[in-house]
Design goal:
By secondary structure, the chain is α/β, with parallel strands linked by helices. It has a single domain, classed as Alpha-Beta Complex (Maf protein). Helices cover about 30% and strands about 25% of the residues. It contains 5 helices and 7 strands; from the N terminus they run βαβαββαβββαα. Strands 1, 2, 3, 4, 5, 6 and 7 form a 7-stranded mixed sheet that branches. Helix 4 crosses helix 5. The longest helix has 16 residues. It is globular, with a radius of gyration of 16 Å.
Length: about 190
């Protein structure tokens, strides 16, 4: 089975492809000649995942899935949330985003946070949603060089290491994206 993944983020594509059984092959947006920036104009993570999946299905005619992820920090009332990728500006720079978040938390003792991923799957004319959540805390400083995005400052529950210090195999088992992807895989095995 081949499925288009509505993403050009090579890190996400690699993470998800590494979890999928060999019988499911991901096709990237580049491979279907979709080079435009897909609008993410919803004010929810679910809404953006749906927008991206629908864009590919409606414009290109493929069964596909799309994800959207946000980091929600309790003391910041869910920020950066839907704006996680562009928290520090439209340049979507991970270091800038982390620096802004750490600065906003400088005088805060509550550092509880969660990553939330929603995957929207368009398959055979139907749409399905899968949600994964990873709870944890924002660290005081960046640690580790694995992963991407906010991984160097997010320490998942029951771990001493940040996502950026964990191997991909461990991260895939406990991460928000990993949990949502496992739900997607289980669904695809049945259908």
């Amino acid at each position: 089975m081949q499925l288009v993944f509505a993403s050009n983020n090579k890190n996400k594509i690699f993470e998800i492809q590494s979890m999928l059984p060999k019988s499911i092959q991901i096709i990237s947006l580049d491979e279907i000649n979709c080079f435009e920036e897909i609008p993410e104009t919803s004010d929810t993570i679910e809404g953006n995942a749906i927008l991206k999946a629908n864009y590919v299905t409606q414009k290109y005619g493929f069964d596909c899935f799309a994800d959207d992820t946000g980091l929600e920090v309790e003391t910041l009332h869910g920020e950066p949330g839907v704006f996680s990728a562009r928290y520090a500006g439209e340049q979507k720079n991970a270091d800038d985003n982390m620096n802004k978040l750490l600065a906003n938390l400088e005088d805060k003792t509550n550092r509880n946070a969660q990553f939330k991923t929603v995957i929207a799957l368009n398959l055979n004319g139907e749409q399905y949603l899968f949600t994964g959540i990873a709870k944890g805390k924002i660290t005081l400083e960046k640690t580790g060089n694995q992963g991407f995005g906010y991984d160097p400052i997010f320490k998942p529950e029951n771990f001493k290491e940040t996502f950026a210090q964990l191997s991909l195999a461990i991260k895939n088992k406990i991460s928000h994206r990993g949990k949502a992807t496992l739900q997607l895989i289980d669904f695809l095995r049945i259908h």
